[in-house]
Amino acid sequence: MIIVMKAGAAKKDKDEVLKRIRELGYKPHVIHGATRDVIGAVGDERGKLILQSVESMHGVESVLPILQPYKLASKEVKKERSIIRVSDTVTIGGKELIVMAGPCSVEGEEQIIETALAVRDAGAQMLRGGAFKPRTSPYSFQGLEEEGLKLLAKAREASGLPFVTEVINPETVELVAEYADMLQIGARNAQNFALLKRVGQIHKPVLLKRGMSMTIQEFLMSAEYIMSEGNQSVILCERGIRTFETATRNTLDLSAIPVLREKTHLPIVADPSHGTGNYHYVAAMAFAAVAAGADGLMIEVHSDPEHASSDGPQSLKPSKFAKMMEKLKLFAEAADRTL
Amino acid sequence: MIIVMKAGAAKKDKDEVLKRIRELGYKPHVIHGATRDVIGAVGDERGKLILQSVESMHGVESVLPILQPYKLASKEVKKERSIIRVSDTVTIGGKELIVMAGPCSVEGEEQIIETALAVRDAGAQMLRGGAFKPRTSPYSFQGLEEEGLKLLAKAREASGLPFVTEVINPETVELVAEYADMLQIGARNAQNFALLKRVGQIHKPVLLKRGMSMTIQEFLMSAEYIMSEGNQSVILCERGIRTFETATRNTLDLSAIPVLREKTHLPIVADPSHGTGNYHYVAAMAFAAVAAGADGLMIEVHSDPEHASSDGPQSLKPSKFAKMMEKLKLFAEAADRTL
Amino acid sequence: MIIVMKAGAAKKDKDEVLKRIRELGYKPHVIHGATRDVIGAVGDERGKLILQSVESMHGVESVLPILQPYKLASKEVKKERSIIRVSDTVTIGGKELIVMAGPCSVEGEEQIIETALAVRDAGAQMLRGGAFKPRTSPYSFQGLEEEGLKLLAKAREASGLPFVTEVINPETVELVAEYADMLQIGARNAQNFALLKRVGQIHKPVLLKRGMSMTIQEFLMSAEYIMSEGNQSVILCERGIRTFETATRNTLDLSAIPVLREKTHLPIVADPSHGTGNYHYVAAMAFAAVAAGADGLMIEVHSDPEHASSDGPQSLKPSKFAKMMEKLKLFAEAADRTL
Amino acid sequence: MIIVMKAGAAKKDKDEVLKRIRELGYKPHVIHGATRDVIGAVGDERGKLILQSVESMHGVESVLPILQPYKLASKEVKKERSIIRVSDTVTIGGKELIVMAGPCSVEGEEQIIETALAVRDAGAQMLRGGAFKPRTSPYSFQGLEEEGLKLLAKAREASGLPFVTEVINPETVELVAEYADMLQIGARNAQNFALLKRVGQIHKPVLLKRGMSMTIQEFLMSAEYIMSEGNQSVILCERGIRTFETATRNTLDLSAIPVLREKTHLPIVADPSHGTGNYHYVAAMAFAAVAAGADGLMIEVHSDPEHASSDGPQSLKPSKFAKMMEKLKLFAEAADRTL
Q1: Among A110, B328, D105, D315, which is disulfide-ready with D305 (CB 3.0 to 4.6 Å)?
Q2: pLDDT per residue over C195-209, tens digit each?
Q3: Which residues of chain B lie closer than 8 angstroms to A306, CB-CB?
Q4: Which of chain D's residues have a Cβ under 8 Å away from the Cβ of A262?
């Protein structure tokens, strides 16, 4: 950590800071600058965010951290990229590009089985569908809950596709884990630390969506929460951040993909459906995500978007999804991926 | 709801849209425009977000909602401003400006009692302090948990100040409610709907912080979650939104105060400590919040910020807090408030 | 335009609004809603932003525009995509993907000629380089000015590549146009309307960069400024928007590409160098931009980035650029483009 | 400047960096850390942004600047607050709170004189009004240009109020300076460096508005552009930044006021009219700005907002303005200001 002193800070103030740095278990190192002094505090900063408190001391202008605060998620701890096993047929993070497709919400048996078969036939390797729905309005459809999980299991049986579904409450983590092949933490719960800890204690892979206003560093800290509880099977999902632009529902931050590939060994998938909020733009952004280096995609597909209980405007019909998958193969190949 | 058709949309498409609008229980009303048609769908939109799905239909360019999606939180339902009773001595939303002050985290008995007495003597009417701490890093101090609640209760006894403390997990809502006079939902949990529902079922006032990237409309929808479960005692707290600016930790959106006063009857408080993240700026923003119409303030005070386990840089020392309270009285008076 | 009246607005207020709408040359059309009335104002809204002033009238809650405010840039006016001729060898917007590469600033004859030859040999079809530099600091290198234009012309002669360079002042538009094949308007000048008007009066293509906090609609309005003065040869360039994320210099908004393809006939290129600010991420984002549908790319290449006078950290060395171009061919092919 | 090396960077890479630092005229200073080395480069960084180019070198993880890049605008150069003389009657930055009020655009003689008299009678000390208008749409009213300047001069004569008006083109700076008492640089031109340099060469005070997505540091760099050309009379104006929130036109960043007071000696005013875009919120935010420490306010007043050629929805009628001024006196007094 680097402590920048104010121009003209008193010697007494500097001495206090040096003393405090030593108390906290670091070794101070002073650089006398042209207009001000800078103090390096040598020692592992992780787990010692308390050092930030030095910023309140007299004569201190600012404190700059040097190390990233995450450890298990970092490439410094594990250099090779993680490949996470979801089922006998699906692993994420390897050469195969994984496509998870399905409706926003599970609405009924016919709907989910039909969609599962359609996305499988178009080439998807996993099914997605919501049983517990975090909705902005208390008056919106909240999901079929356990009944939805059962229908997803039926669709898995019918199609052979493992499925991912969201969990929104620590109390239902075990229930969801009984049914699902992979648990999803949604964007609105990406810093729900009680929930992150709970999914860190189970033995199922977790798809962690980036919060709407989360920096990449905070995103990795949320992954670290899960991993520090023992579950190393975390897949990161970029799904759009909140910006001033209103032409799209969110701004899909594809540059997060190369940044994350540099900083972490965890696999990265992209969700262009939530990222754009408009089915017109989904295919273009799916291709772009793969070109940027994504290990997988999450795509909303609904057989009847005009009647969907949620997120109709961003869902592809199965026929459009199949067309997209055809073209996606070309981009996967260009990216040296199989699909 | 207003459905805007594309320029040159086919008659067939328009007919389909009209049919769908009727199916959903609305009465359609067509306006033939210069270059395109616009269809008004007459009927109460609330609870019918499904109408948005019309956006996927052929020939539709966009769907514009007309009504706000919240009801209980709106001024249309309740015109007079709500005054919420926290204890025998404290109500929020009336003429008296309420100041809640205390440390970010409860760290020990001496610390919390000493701080409670200091902030009381300076004029604060409530104590704040964290027992369960939502921390970005799993390696940071996570709070004293139930032990912290007990210490807060002791500080209440010693000082006579009721206290507010954060709850971060649906499972501990009842525990926290046993001790606290008011429950706080933090910014990271502002769309943790499972938690919102649970605090909607208790009989204690809830201080709801605005999420970092929440629009004002979404903020009111989260209040609606609590209210729709039966608990009408919700106090809104503006605590800074995430923007590109890095000179402050967040950007305290004080314009949210007059906007909320126009849209809702619920009381509104501001948290300049989290809003700025820097104790140098806290007093100026506290004065500004009161001038903008806030019903109360939440201020971090720590007797030894250099040694605080969390948020040291944004905490005021008791002596600075007391000075701020002196000047605050002048602004409260200008705003026709008592303090 | 749709005027939403307040719930319970007085008849008198409604009558005033109807009168005013007629005065402004529109035909009003009232829809009586469940809780409030909505008035459609029929007539071409473009060039009549004054209608927004109705928002100040008594009883009016909000005014929603229906039409996009741009005309010449819109697909409603021109359905087929524009193909813009830059030189005998280069057109932008057709099947060929156009790559413009070169240094941020022209620094000397050897540097610019060497770079021009290197990027040409790697497959770029245009040279880029700054002679007039808009720098955040008055103390930073401001460019070689006219001398830089002369060196760019020499590099064009040596390499056969036409070049694009930035113009930052209405007074030097003619000078720059004498030398350059295409003029660039930088992000900081994207709403410098005096400059936009001036480049609208010349007969050279203009590359218009998106401003850092410009919505897509405002971006098209700036294009409209140029076009409304007579110059239809406008190429749009997405170069990153400002968000809260600090891991990249800007957030390259690739979803702007499919959105713009839907709304305008103008060609669209992407600048992943400024978009990310870090050469590590440039190749991934270049591939992604092409997959998303970009008509071209703008890439910073510097033979000695460690000694560059500006933007060193985001510049590729010629060898890395050549490698990127190899892989880019695969993505261009997948996108059905030639390169 | 602090150079952070990668964990495990080679000795050769470190030696290259040390060599380069010396070449650039700095003295390097190595701190051997627990997992990586950090190099301090001692020497005045200002005017040497080129050091950032070290970031491209092998083995370098990041480069952190220590000094602020502005000099003339900084408090390190001038400790006491600047008081800027606008006319015989008006100075900005002293104890007196200065209110500049008037219409967005000058529309005619009667309008501007009537408004000038009304705002003067309500207590404003300066008139504002646009003659050259930077409008997002080329089809919107662009201002009366020189005719507008003449009308402003007439209104000054009639009312005794000096006036501020915007300049949008380097070519018309001298013309505007002939008439106006203070020149305004608008938000869209806040990084139009050609214009900033030109207003730096005249001898009239300049009101510089913050760009919509400008950091506070960039804001001060734009002030530095003007000052480095010789004109020290710069007044900063916070007018709202662009965020995701749509309930207000912009988000007025009042925390910029205490931040700027800490970093610069220049006076700071706030513009709640553009900041909120809605006349309902103007008074509350004007009070808040004064409480936060603003030296002045800029307020849009129009005698007939429903018929204004621009910005009607955010303009106050003279009667509402007068009421606001009454209450403003109370807040000015609380802030120890005269009005």
Answers
A1: D315
A2: 999 999 999 999 999
A3: 20, 53-54, 56-57
A4: none
